[in-house]
TrEMBL record:
InterPro entries: DhaK_L_YcgS, DhaL_dom, DhaL_dom_sf, Dihydroxyacetone_Kinase
Highest taxon, organism lineage: Bacteria
Stated name of the protein: PTS-dependent dihydroxyacetone kinase, ADP-binding subunit DhaL
Gene transcribed to yield this protein: dhaL
NCBIfam families in UniProt: dha_L_ycgS
GO cellular component, one term: cytosol
One Pfam family in the UniProt entry: Dak2
GO annotation terms (biological process): glycerol catabolic process
All copies of domain DhaL, residue ranges: 5-195
Catalytic activity, EC: 2.7.-.-
Gene Ontology terms, MF aspect: glycerone kinase activity
Keywords, sorted A to Z: Kinase, Transferase
Amino acid sequence: MLDADFFRRWMTAAAAAVDREAERLTALDSPIGDADHGTNMLRGFRAVTAALEKEDPATPGAVLTLSGRQLISTVGGASGPLYGTLLRRTGKALGDAAEVSEEELAAALRTGVEAVATLGGAAPGDKTMLDALIPAVDALAESFAAACEAAEKGAVATTPLLARKGRASYLGERSIGHQDPGATSSALLFATLAEAAGE
Ligand code: ADP
Ligand code: MG
Ligand code: MG
């Protein structure tokens, strides 16, 4: 079973990964965006770790809803509301249980990813974070490690795609040949989930 501490470890590991990879995320956002994805994620996840320390939420659901709220309120770019919705809706789906099973987390994350798709109006293959998030939740039934691998594969597979949503879509054909920054940060999110689980 996964308790609040597990989710706190996940968010802390995600913040550390964003810290390490911020430059790379911004560099990916440079040819097909406005070169701020790393900065956006840094600002958001610093607010997440600060809020978790200050408020010390007691349940898995509360850890994720608090984290999601921070991302929505501190990140100006598209990724803030999208990741914020992912975490908030996942947290809401977990309810107020003190511990949740891996199956419950997988189902809750699916609800969260569906909310991201509804909010952003993107479909698989549109070269967005969904191209990493959807294969990751699909593989979560198997293991955290499988989800991590699927997210990374999904992120890499955005390179030849034509962007149909977000800033990159303004470039049309010129968006082809670049890995999507949001799909790349989504892979980090699932890598750190596996890390928190010790896989
Ligand atoms: P902005 O584009 O506002 O500067 P970021 O650079 O932080 O925001 O985030 C860009 C990422 O957000 C993209 O790489 C993409 O993965 C994701 N994104 C943008 N629009 C959408 C959307 N409508 N649906 C899903 N993901 C999206
Ligand atoms: Mg950007
Ligand atoms: Mg921006």
